[in-house]
Design a protein that fits this description.
Elements (H helix, E strand, L loop, with lengths): L1 E4 L2 E3 L2 E3 L3 E4 L1 E4 L2 E4 L8 E4 L2 E4 L5 H8 L1
Parallel strand pairs: 1-4, 2-5, 3-6, 5-7, 6-8
Length: about 60
């Protein structure tokens, strides 16, 4: 896992899977989560989210029931 500590990222695409974030700030970023392992410690401001792969399974289950 890549460890990011105290970073502020603006306008970036952030892949959560396989990364660790400690005290990071994401501003106007596109955050992608595919259901893998990550350690989160971040604040997101004005960001968009994209769920892929196994991260979509719970949503698909809920939609069908």
């Amino acid at each position: 896992m890549t460890v990011h500590t105290g970073e502020t990222l603006k306008g970036a695409t952030i892949n959560l899977d396989g990364n660790t974030f400690r005290d990071c700030i994401f501003v106007d970023c596109h955050i992608v989560y595919s259901g893998g392992e990550y350690a989160g410690g971040f604040t997101a401001q004005g960001c968009t989210w994209e769920l892929r792969g196994s991260a979509l399974r719970p949503l698909n289950f809920i939609r069908k029931h």
